[in-house]
Amino acid sequence: MGFDSETGENKRDGRWNRRALQVSEAQRRVLAAAGRAASELTPLAECGGRRLAESLRATSDWPPFARAGLDGYAVRAADTALASPQAPATLRVTQAVAAGELALATVKPGTAARIMTGAAMPEGADAVVMLEQTAEASAGGEAAVLVKAVASPGQNVAPRGEEFRHGSLIAEAGALLTPGHVALLGTFGYAAVPVYKRPRVAVFATGSELLPVEAPLAPGRIRDSNSAMIAALVRQSGGEPLLCGTLPDEPGAVRKALADAASEADLIITTGGVSVGDYDAMAELLRELDEWKEPEEGAAEATSLASQWSFESHSSLASHSTFEIRSSSESSSLEADSPLEKGSAVNTQWVQAQQQGECMLLFNRVSMRPGSPTSAALINGRLVLALSGNPGACFVGFELFAGPSIRAMQREPSPVPASVTAVLGADFGKGSPHTRYVRSKLRFGKDGRVHADVLAFGKSSMMASLAESDGLAVIPSGSRGAAAGELVKVLLLKRIYS
Amino acid sequence: MGFDSETGENKRDGRWNRRALQVSEAQRRVLAAAGRAASELTPLAECGGRRLAESLRATSDWPPFARAGLDGYAVRAADTALASPQAPATLRVTQAVAAGELALATVKPGTAARIMTGAAMPEGADAVVMLEQTAEASAGGEAAVLVKAVASPGQNVAPRGEEFRHGSLIAEAGALLTPGHVALLGTFGYAAVPVYKRPRVAVFATGSELLPVEAPLAPGRIRDSNSAMIAALVRQSGGEPLLCGTLPDEPGAVRKALADAASEADLIITTGGVSVGDYDAMAELLRELDEWKEPEEGAAEATSLASQWSFESHSSLASHSTFEIRSSSESSSLEADSPLEKGSAVNTQWVQAQQQGECMLLFNRVSMRPGSPTSAALINGRLVLALSGNPGACFVGFELFAGPSIRAMQREPSPVPASVTAVLGADFGKGSPHTRYVRSKLRFGKDGRVHADVLAFGKSSMMASLAESDGLAVIPSGSRGAAAGELVKVLLLKRIYS
């Protein structure tokens, strides 16, 4: 592996002795440790965009009765068997049925009922003839209709249970509720809908160069733009951001701030301070965690460190119970809930650590560009994601770890970003020992193909490309980069697209 | 044109004498009549997903000063011209500069400054050498650094103004604010951001068969699922829904309910009652409007009808002023705001009618399937969209007209749904005299192509396919439909994807 241009790695002290995890393994650890949100009931008209906390089922057949599909006449098909424009069938009209009304009488042979869209089919009738195929008439002084075409049984009728049978599944727990789901839930009488609570996400920035956004610029200083960006990302991932300002400069104060946040929030995101600079407080704190507790070891030492932290919990996480020790058999049902945990025995420890309120380093280096110093830990059982302070790296770190965590807490079955295969728009020449996540804009060609245009201003420290990015092109590690016209994987950035 | 299976058209009375507009012309009328939202200031951390109400510009250069790109040593590149691992340049380290601090002294020839990522470059220095290319040393008892590689001027330095010049555009009015925009706005000190107010959208259902969602089913009746679905769609389009329940059955009461709503809301959406059934109150009201005022005529009669309606306005629309007559030259700037209005002289009349608080039918039939009876009118200058009551048709009508209206009110430059070209997944055999909008799910192939899979349960009356749809495949009018493997246009349904 070559040098590390982001951390300036030179192995001179412990700061640089970080083992880089592959992104997929880092995601696995984070998702296993993310915990699960509690549920709440929300009014139907407000549940769009939330995630369902229980699988819900049809409370009746749908349609609940055979319905007329359009405005016309309900007839017995057999009565029209010989009908044609030249020799229409004449049927006596005995009643009219509006939607919401019930027919007064059975449709007997030789009769018809005027019927409106959505009305329940009268007994006896088995087809609806559209108005255009009819003419009004009278038969012996009574209202009648001339039917000019043969009707087949079932024609223009939506039979009972055509779309849903009573008890069939509407949507599974974890589903993101679309407007179409809302319609179905309304149809089946779910006026209040069980959804997962929005995970509460504490957001801290670190860095003594940071000014509040409202402050005038000062020499050598910049405004904290990451906190507001993270707040927007948290909201668009289904969480509720709690902006906590800037972390203090010394590790003791950082530790206290994070422990306080751990008792209020379900997830903690910090930006900055994770690299190898002389003043990187987050990195120092995470090293300290690492010394107390190696991930591969048992949980015994961790609890002794955890006792330095505060314990009270106001969280919206369901399964979290600080320091309540569970056996691994008790925790196994939780483990099985998360698809990413399957087949990964080692993940049991992250689940246990989360449930037991432990402190534990999950990783402090990831094989990715930008954002290799991205780190994750449990502090009192709460997931802490320490993202890079460089806006580009912070953004990528959020998309790869924080967004997925917020979604996993709400049992989203596929919490990591979905990907598409796209045609790379231009050479991306730089090879790298790490996988690159390159800010791109997707374009849909007239040829039915998806194209990923790599955006300018894509350096880790740069912001100008963030606003336009709707994808991250994944350039595999290796010496050569990727060429224009190659097919590459592009992660879709999940956003409010409206 | 063949028969109309949705309206059962048979020309027996005025109900069926509706002229069908093409979708694009209907959209043009609706967007011209939609009015413009007022603006408000929102805190930076809450502006993600809103639309910018003013074009905003950089308030400084960015970066505001030359910044170190990584942790290392700030040097004069000329001092390293001969450096190599075998013969490193030895530079005296005179200071350390943390991010947020200013250097105490100029970097003079033969000296270097320890520097952290993001710190302002000291005067004199023109390059940063990463730590890996250095070693600590001492020179005459003073701290020094050995630089083992030639540094080029500007290396690892982000020059002042590299990304933005003071005054350059960050984003234009109407832009949907992404997390990346939020980062930029924070950087430039916009703690409060001018965004368009969310348009308030009154939602009514019609139909005496409708029960409230919380009611038990009753024979022949169904629950009102459209209102909640529309509420979810309104929210995901950037509006604020006001659920108004079910419209009464007679036109006089409908007129009063809509007039009351027109004084409170920026847009009114009704579902149901637009077809040719005997009890379709919305259709009757719209015919009445049509008789009062033909779109092609002047505005004189309309104001006399309008006087039947209530006038007080609590709306969040900026430019609306009931009955204040403006000359067409005064209204021309508004007209020019909407890209869809350009080159369409006739649209002036919709703009004027909106501004002057008029009542006017815009259309009551559109050449589309499902949803051909979809209608639009101005009532006291407020846009009323009368969507079909069939859930599928209601959904398509929303996507084609209501979503675009809500976005146009917030000056979204491209308010109608974006489209992609996709490979149709299966034959869609049915020809139609009208353009079909077919519920589809998009799939991204490993070959870089987009595929549109037509969903089952796609009839106008059906709901089961709504939840999964993320596109509407557009099947042009004609006799043959479209075949599997053909390239078709697919409208993207704009959603919260998080």
From TrEMBL, chains A, B:
Entry similarity comment: Belongs to the MoeA family.
Transmembrane segments: none
InterPro entries according to UniProt: MoaB/Mog-like_dom_sf, MoaB/Mog_dom, MoeA-like, MoeA_C_domain_IV, MoeA_C_domain_IV_sf, MoeA_linker/N, MoeA_linker/N_sf
Protein name: Molybdopterin molybdenumtransferase
Pathway entry: Cofactor biosynthesis; molybdopterin biosynthesis
GO MF annotations in UniProt: metal ion binding; molybdopterin molybdotransferase activity
Function description: Catalyzes the insertion of molybdate into adenylated molybdopterin with the concomitant release of AMP.
Keyword line: Magnesium, Metal-binding, Molybdenum, Molybdenum cofactor biosynthesis, Transferase
Domain of life: Bacteria
